[in-house]
Amino acid sequence: MNKKQVRNILDTIGGMFPDAHCELNHANPFELTIAVLLSAQCTDETVNKVTASLFQKYKKPEDYIAVPIEELEQDIRRIGLFRNKAKNIQALCVLLLNKYGGEIPEQHEQLVELPGVGRKTANVVMSNAFGVPAIAVDTHVERVSKRLGMANLKDTVLEVEKKLMKLVPKEEWTLTHHRLIFFGRYHCKAQNPQCDVCSLVEGCREGKKRMKSGSRRKPIQ
């Protein structure tokens, strides 16, 4: 894919979603980290419903470890994998207090050492909380990147991230991350992409199949 093609994709999606942003409600890096941890295999909408009360009850790491694990589990039980996430949250808070003075570290290699925090979560925190350019590849970013040919169908999440980092100007990494998410969440959906009204359909693997056949084939995930 050449620079002109990439620019067209970025500009088109940017025109559709100029105000794309992180939809997880948070007031500080600590709350963002907890919210992203909770969002694994769960919608942002559900996470925001849970954190509306969670962040009122728990303000700092000490608060999360001051309650029995069963109580925290109940507070987040509407979230998928809530037991494992409650365990990770308490372990994360213990580590923050023991090693980082209760504050979320700003270095990527330190973030990924936190329980429940993987590369995607670390990238989201780095970019949204600390203003460091990063591209976090979630299910939407992966799907859209592969459909539009910015990555290969068999690429791993890490390979998709590396290819996007090469294709997209560094100063646009964070904004592109948000716009790709919005594009995938509200337009290029997994099951029912809006191919018939999409300006990028001619360069889209899934779109070309659908428009050519006129049928709903199994989408590229």
UniProtKB/TrEMBL annotation:
EC class name: lyase
Q: What does the record give as EC number?
A: 4.2.99.18
Gene Ontology BP, a term: base-excision repair, AP site formation
HhH-GPD domain location, by residue? 38-186
Q: Has UniProt tagged this entry with the keyword Hydrolase?
A: yes
| Annotated catalysed reactions | 2'-deoxyribonucleotide-(2'-deoxyribose 5'-phosphate)-2'-deoxyribonucleotide-DNA = a 3'-end 2'-deoxyribonucleotide-(2,3-dehydro-2,3-deoxyribose 5'-phosphate)-DNA + a 5'-end 5'-phospho-2'-deoxyribonucleoside-DNA + H(+)
Residues engaged in binding [4Fe-4S] cluster: 188, 195, 198, 204
Q: Which UniProt keywords apply?
A: 4Fe-4S, DNA damage, DNA repair, DNA-binding, Endonuclease, Glycosidase, Hydrolase, Iron, Iron-sulfur, Lyase, Metal-binding, Nuclease
Pfam families, alphabetized? HHH, HhH-GPD
Q: How is the cofactor bound?
A: Binds 1 [4Fe-4S] cluster.
InterPro entries per UniProt:
DNA_glycosylase, Endonuclease-III-like_CS2, HhH-GPD_domain, HhH_base_excis_C, HhH_motif, Nth
The record, for PANTHER family, names:
A/G-SPECIFIC ADENINE GLYCOSYLASE/ENDONUCLEASE III, ENDONUCLEASE III
Q: Which NCBIfam families match?
A: nth
In Swiss-Prot or TrEMBL terms, this protein is called Endonuclease III
The species this protein was found in: Paenibacillus foliorum
